[in-house]
Amino acid sequence: MNYGGRSLEVLENVSVDSLVKLAGVIDGANEIALEGHELRAMIAQLNFLRLKPEAEQEKIFSGLAAKHLPALADQFRTDPSALSPSMTLMNTVSHTPYFARFLKTPGGQGIAALHVKHMAQDPDVGALDTDRIGEVTQFLSTLLLLQGMADVEQADKMALMHKLRLWVQVYRGQFAAGTSSRCIASLTSDPSMGAYMMQVKALLEEPLYKCGGTNCARATSTGEGQLLQCSRCKSAVHCSEEHQKQAWRSHKANCFQVTF
To answer: What's the angle, vertex CA 73, arms to CA 68 and CA 77, rounded to 5?
Structure first.
């Protein structure tokens, strides 16, 4: 089984460049994947990457997010499919502080509303298997937590709600049902899920406003004023140069120059 790749050896050689090549962000997808199988090959590479140590995974995810999120978002806007290479990669790095910060920039605006539209209007979304349904709904649940429902069109919301409720029933007990339920909770502002969703949102955004120093509770949200932002990644803050130096040992592996 080649998983859509030129060879198993090529697919196992996962890097930031190989992933963005398969997404079409830079040229060279034909070096890795058979024509027409780029998404399949990308999913295979991501599965191989998840077999590696967590530190190695996070270094690739952080490097990809820091450098390529703007280009991935541009591609996402031009591809109406619910499942696309750009969506897959953005979902893969959506847990990083780079992604949370990117959504606050002009280049990241409106992605949640657009993903709702893609899922609501793509006629092929119903043919996706349970893993892919879980993927597209996981991405939407993260987007709705971080961006809310601003600019979501009512017609798209209603069309998608029908699909989400169906997936909750069809995939009962599976990952796709859980992610679909979280999307429903966000789209309906379910009060029973409010506290949980706020906790997850705070966890995703915490590196952007809370000092990264060991056991330091200083944060912009607690009235501590402006903290020192990492000038390179712009996705970590510290209350002092001392705490910045203290945190550098753990921070440096995933600190990359951002393009946004």
So the answer is: 150
Query: Furthest-apart CA pair in the chain: how many Å?
Result: 57
Alpha-carbon distances of 72 from 173, 185, 201, 215, rounded to whole Å: 32, 27, 22, 35
Note the pLDDT of residue 1: 57
pLDDT above 70: percentage of residues in the chain = 97
Rounded distance, CA 134 to CA 99, Å? 19
| Residue 226, C-beta contacts closer than 8 angstroms, at least 6 positions apart | 220
d(CA 240, CA 258): 22
What is the DSSP code (8-state) at residue 210? B
Cα distance between residue 102 and residue 108, in whole Å: 6
pLDDT in the model for residue 3:
85
Residue type, 206: E
**67 vs 13: CA distance, rounded Å:** 20
d(Cα 104, Cα 81) in Å, to the nearest integer? 24
* R_g of the chain, CA atoms, integer Å: 19
